[in-house]
Amino acid sequence: MKAYIFLVITALIYASNILVGKAINELPPYTIAFFRVFTAFLIMLPIGWKQAMQHRDVFKKEWKPLLALALTGVAFFNTFIYAALQFTSATNVSIMEAAIPVVTIVFSMLFLKERLYGVQWLGVILSVVGALWVITEGSWQVIRNLAFNIGDIIMIGAIITWVLYSILVKFHMHKFPVYGSLLVMLIIANIALFPIALIEWITGGFPPVFETEHMLGLIHLGIFPSVIALILWNKGVEAVGPSQASIFLNFIPVFTMIGAVLLLGESIGFAQIVGAVVVIAGVLLTTRREAKETRKWAERKSTVSS
């Protein structure tokens, strides 16, 4: 149950990521991504330094998976989203994000031999359909009228990046200390993103990062999506596996909708309420596991960890 609460909170934080990202969207994408991970690095430095020093031999030995985790989940997933939004609509991005659970399940079956059973498949279908219903406000005309461009290709990269990150978490995250590993991954992410952000500043001039609204937005992104959400997501994936964890991402459009109503004064329609209910029902169905399935997963988890 605790893992599911972590995953719900993660979806809530990632919904705030979309809302805040929209608010500071005039900043270039790699500038947002860099200052986001730089802020997170400053926060994690006093928290994770001791663990990082104590486990440096582990980091040296397992540097390949650590590098892969840092580049996929910390550095480039959200960077791809920010870049995609420069070329395509938020609707396209949201709809493509709704494909993450399905892609995750396919990859998990291929690489983790993970399985869903019976009614859980119905839950997957319901959660994806419900997310699409919220995004399109119940109008399939929105999907029929979509035009795809380079931004959508970038979003495919974002989807694959996040799925790979989730699978890497299941295979390798148990090897590393929570706070020390996040600090090291943030260092790697800063090194990877700084040269790209520097190119943005050279070609377009240094953006107004230090305006109050932008600074507050970047601080939020650095604390919540970059630190708290990553820790909670990692714990959730380790507990229930990538397939079930990914279903909770379909809460993101629901929470985004609620945030838009409360914070931006947007209205909410009946179709969106129906979609939210369907998402919740789908998640509840997907997270139902018989005792036998739970034992199987626990046995496989202990085998991987040993």
TrEMBL record:
Membrane-related topology note = Multi-pass membrane protein
Q: Where in the cell is it found?
A: Cell membrane
Q: Where are the transmembrane segments?
A: 27-45, 66-87, 93-112, 119-136, 148-168, 180-202, 214-233, 245-264, 270-287
* UniProt main location, coarse: membrane
Gene3D superfamilies membership:
1.10.3730.20
Domain spans labelled EamA: 2-135, 150-287
Is Transferase tagged as a keyword? Answer: no
One Pfam match, given by its short name, reads EamA
Q: Does the keyword Transmembrane apply?
A: yes
Q: What keywords are assigned to this protein?
A: Cell membrane, Membrane, Transmembrane, Transmembrane helix
What family is it from? Answer: Belongs to the EamA transporter family.
Q: What is this protein called?
A: DMT family transporter
